[in-house]
Every structure is written in structure tokens, then in C-alpha cells.
């Protein structure tokens, strides 16, 4: 418990270990595909020595619940009452089209403009909450895609 209090007070695992005069432990950091380098570097700077475990969001939730990961960088939302979640990055979601596609000449797209288009998407089981949230927003929201 003193170690966790020292981390909270010091702000980083490295500084807490220095203050407690102990070797810094290597923490297992779960990372899903597509995590921006800047977010990963920030996590490494805060946590110090980390062992990267590449895993989808759903798998990371399981690993965190079993205590096999110290921290996970996941796609939100994550619904698990045993975990605490903080937003550390808000990434824009974009639409990519071939230059010759009929919609490519437009400067603004509505979700409705994408109806009937083939969507190349990652397997939903890797981040089920994120997949459902984005796809649901596209179906129900009249939002603009820029």
C-alpha cells in the first residue's frame, strides 16, 4: 500500500521507486493496435520500465481482471465494475476513400452518405464496446463526417 501511495504522491513509478529506495518494478502494459506513439511514450514516461503486451481491448480487460497486466491502453467503452477507466486520448475517426470514389470529391460527408458503402473494419471482438459505439453512432447520429 505504501508503494501505491508513493506513486500517487510522486507522480511516476520511477520517482516513487527512487523515493522508496527500491528497484523500479517492470510493469506489464497492455496496448491495443493503433495506439498513437505519443500516448505510448507518455505512458512509458509515467510508468517507467514496462513490458509491452499487445492485446485487443477485450483481452486486456480479462488480463487486467486476473492481475496479469498493471495497466491497459484500450479502446473505450469498457464495462467492468472491477476496473477504473480514465480517458487519456481522444482520437478522431476518419473516412478514407480512393481518389476515384464518387464521394471523394466532396468536402463534407454525412453518415447517411455512407449508407450502402462497404466498410473495412477491424474484428469487433478486439474492442466490442468501441466497435458498437462507433457503428451505432453512424446509424443513429445525423453527425457530419469531415
Explain what this protein looks like in three dimensions:
With 146 residues, the chain is an alpha/beta fold. The chain contains 5 helices and 5 strands. The chain has helices at residues 2-10, 13-20, 37-47, 57-65, 128-140; strands at residues 27-31, 50-54, 71-73, 109-110, 144-145. It has a 3-stranded parallel β-sheet with strand order 2-1-3, with helices on both faces. Strands 4-5 form a two-stranded antiparallel sheet. It is elongated, with a radius of gyration of 19 Å. The N and C termini lie far apart (48 Å). The mean pLDDT is 80.
Structural class: alpha/beta
Provide the helix percentage: 25-40%
Shape: elongated
Pattern of helices and strands: HHEHEHEEHE
Provide mean pLDDT, rounded: 80
Which range does the strand content fall in? Answer: 5-15%
Unreliable runs, pLDDT <50, ≥5 residues?
A: none
Quantity of strands, as a count: 5
Q: With helices defined by DSSP (H or I, 4 residues minimum), what is the helix count? A: 5
Strand order of the largest sheet: 2-1-3
How does the major sheet shape up? 3 strands, parallel
Distance between the termini: 48 Å
SSE inventory with pairings:
Layout: H1 2-10, H2 13-20, E1 27-31, H3 37-47, E2 50-54, H4 57-65, E3 71-73, E4 109-110, H5 128-140, E5 144-145
Parallel strand pairs: 1-2, 1-3
Antiparallel strand pairs: 4-5
List keywords for this structure.
single chain, 146 residues, alpha/beta, three-stranded parallel beta sheet, two-stranded antiparallel sheet, 12% strand
Amino acid at each position: 500500500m505504501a508503494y501505491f501511495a508513493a506513486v500517487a504522491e510522486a507522480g511516476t513509478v520511477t520517482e516513487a521507486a527512487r523515493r522508496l529506495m527500491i528497484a523500479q518494478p517492470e510493469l506489464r502494459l497492455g496496448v491495443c493496435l493503433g495506439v498513437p506513439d505519443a500516448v505510448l511514450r507518455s505512458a512509458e514516461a509515467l510508468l517507467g520500465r514496462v513490458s509491452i503486451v499487445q492485446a485487443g481491448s477485450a483481452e486486456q480487460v480479462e488480463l487486467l481482471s486476473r492481475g496479469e497486466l498493471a495497466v491497459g491502453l484500450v479502446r473505450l467503452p469498457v464495462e467492468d465494475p472491477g476496473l477504473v477507466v480514465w480517458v487519456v486520448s481522444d482520437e478522431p475517426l476518419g473516412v478514407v476513400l480512393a481518389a476515384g470514389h464518387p464521394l471523394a470529391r466532396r468536402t463534407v460527408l454525412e453518415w447517411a452518405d455512407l449508407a450502402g458503402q462497404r466498410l473495412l473494419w477491424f474484428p469487433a471482438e478486439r474492442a466490442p464496446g468501441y466497435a458498437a459505439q462507433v457503428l451505432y453512432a453512424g446509424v443513429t447520429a445525423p453527425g457530419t463526417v469531415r
